[in-house]
């Protein structure tokens, strides 16, 4: 585990959909360059945790900060601008736009003083060569796995310091999972932090530094290591 000061700090996070309380006092931290997996059954609260970080659900916390900035009062677009990328379960690829146009939509100007190089399209295509090969293809003509890769690449081009990934390898062929894992490992090596909701240990094995298990909206301590 990294010994750097945490980038994301969450302490006692509660969240609700309407009157239904879904998350109960979640506490976790993600350090710069650290990859953390969040696992748990269907309906455990994994997606809600990511949504709570970026303000898509009603939430309350003793602390929810990113790089020392309190996220609770900020609207989602301001949180994204701080450098948090989010790839939701529902990927929202624009089927009538090309790969390149889909990526351009994710582009954001580099944050002043952020000290991170902005990702160029060419750098993203180098990381995901398949996307480069199909840059003029329409989103609607891509497979589910290719769309998933495009969604990850688009979040990247927004120049995040932390990437929240909701089941990025869901429905993705093993070979593509492998490529995605390699790309994410390279990103992590550049200092990008990752918080990944993922049951697929093929993606997280060798990538994630820690695995946290969530059950019925509560963190249950470290998950057992996957079988070798
Ligand atoms: P999965 O593995 O199926 O993606 P998850 O761990 O991501 O599950 P969440 O989507 O966070 O689970 O859902 C947590 C709980 O919140 C579930 O009981 C779910 O039914 C409920 N829930 C999710 N979205 C909403 C919503 N928009 N309105 C009301 N309840 C919701
Ligand atoms: Mg989910």
From TrEMBL:
Keywords: Amino-acid transport, ATP-binding, Nucleotide-binding, Transport
Entry-linked SMART domains: AAA
Record domain ABC transporter: where: 8-227
A GO term for molecular function: ATP binding
Domain of life: Bacteria
Pfam family, one: ABC_tran
Family: Belongs to the ABC transporter superfamily.
Protein name (Swiss-Prot/TrEMBL): Branched-chain amino acid transport system ATP-binding protein
